Amino acid sequence: MKIANKTVTATRLVKDALEKVKYFEDYNIFTYLDQDGALKRAAEIDERISRGEKVGRLAGVPFAAKSNFLVKGYPTTASAHILEEFDSPITATSVQKLLDEDAILIGLTNCDAFAHGSSTENSYFGVTLNSCDRERVAGGSSGGSAVAVALDVVEFTTGTDTGGSIRQPASFNGIYGFKPTYGCISRYGVVAMASSLDCIGFFTKTPEDMDLLMSIASGQDSKDLTTLPDFYDNSDSMTSVFANIATNGELLASEPRNDGRERSGLQKHLSRIGVIKDFDNEVVDTEIRNALKEKCELLKSKGYEIVELEMPALKYALAAYYIIQPAEVTSNLSRYDGVRYGFRSHETTDLSSLYSKTREEGFMPENKRRIMIGNFVLSSGFYDAYFLKAAKARTLIINEYEEAFKKCDFILTPVSPNPAFKIGEKVNNPVAMYLEDLMSVSLNLAGVPGLTIPAGTSKNGLSLGLQIVGPRRSDKTLINFSKELI
Ligand code: GLN
Predict the structure, then answer these.
(1) Average pLDDT, stretch 234-247?
(2) What percent of the chain has pLDDT over 90?
(3) Is the CB of 198 inside a 6 Å radius of any atom of ligand 1?
(4) What long-range pairs does 3-7 form, CB within 8 A, spacing at least 24?
(5) N or C: which terminus of the chain carries fewer CB neighbours within 10 A?
(6) What tens digit of pLDDT does each residue of 411-458 get?
């Protein structure tokens, strides 16, 4: 708005962002910076505005993309050595849609290599520091994207979420992070991790920004056959009701309830919020559990009913995820062989050593671990015992969410069992690191949307986050509902 009104120029905004990049350099947020390109695009937008031309809805807004998004001419590495010399030949559909609205991309952000991890400690480019405490991890895998928004370097960033990679770093840094319904945003042009779980989403400072980005980025794409027909604006009756609220808010907001209390427009259609009984135990940090209780009290004071849910199948989610995800990773990473993309080892004597040496040097230990596990669970003799069992557990989890959403409109849960942990604390213990994902992976297995919301700070100054989980295609209503929890 300010841009269109000429109270600030796109060039000024981009220069500010670039200055902040320099100021926060030791946080290790970026893997690539496109200073010249960003300033050039900003000048073009300023020029168009001064000529009185129409500009896009994101005109002049600086943003950054996670380093697993392809942007033509950018060195997309997915923060992995094996992709280091790879120049993207195309631009991801999601990024293109943002550029078409005149947003200005300033660079690519750090993440765990190939998005495998929960801390950015698996990045070839080193760890990203937490925005509240520099001795702690940013979270992951999209840690750079989360810190870029938390430290106000850019207005928003893109991320990918296969098992929590947007929601967990958002909660570690006190911002909003959204993983939409599977298939809502095109995955075309994004380095694949586990194709049946991967979702594209965003980090923002407000639900309103998230809503705008979702309305721009979502929709069917002929280049990604798993994308759903556009539902973001008119997905279901709840959404269209909500659209009415936006235009007719006052009327609905002042309608009296039977008990005489005021009832907001949103509550007329959303009344029950679920909490998962099985997550209320000592595995979860007390301060996070208290933050959840406080938000439940807030909802009750607004007239919502809190429903306790038993979801016993969720206890299989982590195990099922760490079978299905590596199985798909194995398949997706098999294309990196030193022939077709990026880095190639120099110490090769024949084709076979070219493959093995390139992979040995190019992949991080965590990437290799997942390739090994994936091959194991898919191998004959073990397929039935592992992969097939995990696929069955996934079905149970999908059904359990469906049943839960018959009893409530949304579910409120922790995102991870603890706030940001210390750098180095879990990196040598893969199982401890995997346990970080205890409460985030079931959403990806079920394909349902989840939004991380800020929920205060811990006694030692760390950000606390919670997530709102909704039924498939409830994305817009869910984002709007989050305003009730501010
Ligand atoms: N932390 C999870 C993992 O390492 C999720 C990663 C992601 O969502 N990309 O698999």
Answers:
(1) 33
(2) 88
(3) no
(4) 3/45, 3/49, 3/55, 3/59, 3/60, 3/61, 4/49, 4/55, 4/59, 6/49, 6/50
(5) N
(6) 999 999 999 999 999 999 999 999 999 999 999 999 999 999 999 999
pTM for the model stands at 0.93
Residue 298, pLDDT score:
98
Is there a domain that residue 238 lies in?
Answer: no
How far from the centroid of its chain's Cα atoms is residue 283's Cα? 24
CA 441 – ligand 1 centroid, Å:
8
Looking from the CA of residue 194, the nearest atom of ligand 1 is 9
Q: How far is the CA of 115 from the centre of ligand 1 (A)?
A: 6
Q: Is residue 172 part of a domain?
A: yes
Q: Is the peptide bond before 141 cis (omega within 30 degrees of 0)?
A: yes
> Would residue 89 count as lying in a domain?
yes
Residue whose CA lies nearest to ligand 1 atom number 3: 117
CATH number reported for the structural domain that contains residue 184 in this entry: 3.90.1300.10
- Answer whether 118's CB lies under 8 Å from 369's CB: no
Residue 312 has pLDDT above 70, yes or no: yes
**Tokens representing residue 211 in the block:** 């809503």
Pocket test for ligand 1, best of 111, 118, 122, 364 (most atoms within 8 A of CB): 118
What is the tens place of the pLDDT at every residue in 457-478? Answer: 999 999 999 999 999 999 999 9
Q: What is the distance between the alpha carbons of residues 116 and 218, in angstroms, rounded to a whole number?
A: 25
Tokens of 459: 């006694």
Report the atom number in ligand 1 closest to the C-alpha of 115. 9
Q: Distance between CA atoms of 232 and 470, rounded to whole angstroms?
A: 14
Q: Is the CB of 165 under 6 A from ligand 1?
A: yes
Cβ of residue 116 lying under 6 Å from some atom of ligand 1: yes
Range of the domain at 65: 10-217
Give the pair of three-digit tokens for residue 398: 């999908």
Separation of CA 95 and ligand 1 centre (Å): 21
Closest-lying ligand 1 atom to the alpha carbon of residue 168: 1
By C-alpha distance, which of 13, 15, 16, 107 is closest to 60?
13
Q: Annotated active-site positions, please?
A: 66, 141, 165
Number of domain units in the chain: 1
Residues 285, 315: Cα–Cα separation, whole Å? 18
Q: What is the pLDDT of residue 20?
A: 98
Is residue 330 domain-resident? no
Q: What's the CA angle centered on 142, arms 291 and 288, to 5 degrees?
A: 10
CA of 247 to the centre of ligand 1 (A): 39
- Cα(140) to ligand 1 centroid in Å equals 7
Q: What are phi and psi of 166, to 5 degrees?
A: -100, -45
Gap between the Cα atoms of 63 and 421, Å rounded: 27
